[in-house]
């Protein structure tokens, strides 16, 4: 990287580091807050769905904006808007006016602004660094994000347990505002030649071109179908099932659960450090990385599911449960990095700059399209079905799907 690229990338990372730290603090506290207020896994599942569905609906349109407007300005504006909304929630909480309905409604708007932010930031990294530095930059970006996510849940559990939800909102709101301020100093001009004129026909034409591009690429198409099924099963496991299991079934405190969440992120951090150090210049290893990543995730997920049967839970003390489950989640995180980062770099390399935001947005929607249904289903299941049976069922389904995908992997080209 040259001097300007280093400066821009450093400011970009600083903004991410601070806002992700604040989000990590809030992310760990909100499910605990909802669970403490309602005691319902279904309400947790509903909140997780509300957090995702508006973003899925608006994400393709956000992608069109990201390609036709200045990505830096969108990123800054969305950070400021989200920061002020969350500070408003802090004021409501401070005066005792917060309710579940207000929380759900505000989350709808935050989710929409998240999609606008993501469509621009994901597409910006190739504009800030050279192609030869993409794997290293992506690994560094994910490593810094992982560091924030490690600190966030730890701090979130402690702050929520000691000071309550209002301080969680204050810290997260201020983190978004600081992030926006740092991003203002990035030297960046609009890098696409597309017109800024936007109407229904433009949006429809752009989205149609994106879908055609994706489904003409055999690797993208196969990856899409696999990701839809996998996200339907895995995302609800982490967002709904694991919080419910360790808070309600195992009996972790807010602080213990916050620490447990960090073990998954530590694994992602370690995985990305390994990628950045040993594989940043070796793009031909993508298929092998994906294969080992998938095998690792499937294997550790199976071990994790059997560890949570009642006989195992009753055998170990709370802290023994913490160290064993934390170790397994850490290994799963390393495996996850070996899958997600090479795929992200592949997308950044092959997708043209003029189409990058909208194609990333469409890919994101297709990847996540089934997830809300999974969250609702799992949310209702945990209120009536023993959690270990849900874990075991999901693990065996993922195993079968992964076997089918690994057979396809040898025919897919990720260069």
Report on the architecture of this protein:
- 84% of the residues lie in helices and 0% in strands.
- It is mainly α and 415 residues long.
- It has a single domain (3-186, 212-409), classed as Growth Hormone, Chain: A (Up-down Bundle), CATH 1.20.1250.20.
- Helix 3 (71-94) packs antiparallel against helix 4 (100-128), helix 5 runs antiparallel to helix 9 and helix 10 (286-307) packs antiparallel against helix 12.
- The two termini are 22 Å apart.
- It comes from Tepiditoga spiralis.
- Pfam families: MFS_1.
- Keywords: Cell membrane, Membrane, Transmembrane, Transmembrane helix, Transport.
Task: Please indicate the percent range of residues in DSSP E strands (runs of 2 or more).
Answer: under 5%
CATH architecture: Up-down Bundle
- Percent helix, as a range, is over 70%
Question: How many DSSP helices?
Answer: 15
Largest sheet: none
CATH fold topology: Growth Hormone, Chain: A
How widely separated are the two ends?
Answer: 22 Å
Number of strands: 0
Keywords: Cell membrane, Membrane, Transmembrane, Transmembrane helix, Transport
Domain Major facilitator superfamily (MFS) profile: 8-410
InterPro entries: MFS, MFS_dom, MFS_trans_sf
Transmembrane segments: 12-34, 46-65, 77-96, 169-188, 223-242, 262-280, 292-309, 321-347, 359-381, 387-406
Features:
transmembrane helix, 84% helix, Growth Hormone, Chain: A, mainly alpha, 415 residues
Write the layout of secondary structure elements.
Blueprint: H1 3-38, H2 41-68, H3 71-94, H4 100-128, H5 134-163, H6 165-183, H7 200-216, H8 218-249, H9 254-278, H10 286-307, H11 310-315, H12 318-350, H13 356-368, H14 371-381, H15 387-409
